[in-house]
Design a protein that fits this description.
Helix content is about 15%, strand content about 20%. By secondary structure, it is an alpha+beta fold. The protein has one domain (about 10-475). Strands 3, 4, 7, 8, 9, 13, 14 and 15 form an 8-stranded antiparallel sheet that branches. A 5-stranded antiparallel sheet has the order 1-2-12-11-10, with no helix packed on it. A hairpin with a 6-residue loop joins β5 and β6 (about 140).
Amino acid sequence: MSRKTWNLAAISALALSLAASADAANHREAPITALDHKADITDVYAFVSYSDSTAQQQPSHVTLILCVDPLLEPANGPTLFPFDPEIMYEIKIDNDHDAKEDITFQFRFRTDYRLPGVYTAVAGIGDEGAFAPGTNTLVVPPQIRSFDNPGLNQIQNYTVTMLRGPGQGQAMDLMNADGGPFYAVPGNAGPRTMDYAALFEQATYQTPEGLKVFAGTVDDPFWIDLGAAFDTANFRTLASGVPGVLTEEEDSAHANAASDTVSGYAVNAIALEIPIEMLTSTGRVERATSPAATIGVWATTSRARDRVFPWGVSKGPFRQVQRMGNPLINELIIGIGSKDRFSMSHPSGDSAFADFFLDPPIVKIVEALYGGALTVPAGPRADLLPLVTYAAPIAAEGTPAGPVADLLRLNTGVPATPPESASRLGLIAGDAAGYPNGRRLFDDVVDIVLRVGVGGVLTTDAAGESLNRFPNNSLGDGVNVNDAAYRTAFPYLADAPDGRNRRHLDPGEEGGGPVE
């Protein structure tokens, strides 16, 4: 079917199918986290580190990133956006294919106030600060350029604990190789108050074991036309003439044809760079053809349960609030009545959600609404198995499939693709180091999931014909890139927008796409 002869009667059905992905990656996707923003995991990333990479270079490190607390408005002072000291933040790794954690990294934060009488979390100006007129009394500290500046009134340090072994019985507290504490980068108040970039660089730490660690408020690395999605899936009509369908030119552009609703917002991020031999079950860097090369990654947030006694309240054991592996699973796949149960459950029990995973209800909805105008794959979907089991083309031949489980699977033996030759469409565009083989910051998971999950581009129709054809392979929201440039080295994240000058890109302006 050519673009010119596309059945325009199917427009509304296509728009409704796109609505299922409208919650971004994990921005307020379940009832429980819509009420608990601090515990809301927005995104999880896992990829072979690509700084200074060349094609076919043997991998050496993996970067893991956990983002929480969505849609932070940088101008929203006077308190910025600390991590919650009451939450346990965890990144977990399965390296023996049973969907149970073999390695866990735990993060706990502490908040202190250096100037409790000052009205704002941060204050600073110039090289010397500001004095009471006619005196030597310092009223405002100098611009914040380091973590020892008292103008960084609200300051957070954190601990990192690595657990491993059967039952996670072996615990090791990671230390800063320089002997000092780990500090989290605060929100970016603005150019008068702080040199945010300087703080960012100082907050990237190394441990004696060769790990790198970072935590802080950064630019939200995700992108989507979220506003259009919530207007009953009123996605932009771009050059194809069909909402939610891209032309070849739009699809290949390193630019946005629609507005990135997440532009100008911040998020809290935790990042680790880890030698691969610390993650595999063999303790070695494995070739991509080795079953031991592929690991499964997910993240959780947990809160301590309060216990009420006649004499007061004490903290009980931690209880999981949310988890995330693959992007869009809880939004696009899981029914709303099951979202909270899914959030609080363990991946090893995901057989309870297998019907959602392998026969997504949204696909049947699309098929019914199209009335045959769009061919969609029939369930159960074997083409979706690599997302929820250890299977090719991510895992090597001979890798135990393990139970059905929502883990972000990463073959640590696949060399990183140098950024200049990487594709935002990852594996479906021939970029072996991209999603769903792990997930890089610049992987366009919205378009990938639409094309794989709804369009079925990795499978065939009832006649055995490939579904990798128009319009199935052209579904997209028109947002192809992030509004801020990512770093090219650990922790790869972009600077948080500053509160004074942040900018949210709007429809109708250049780069924001059409209003209609």
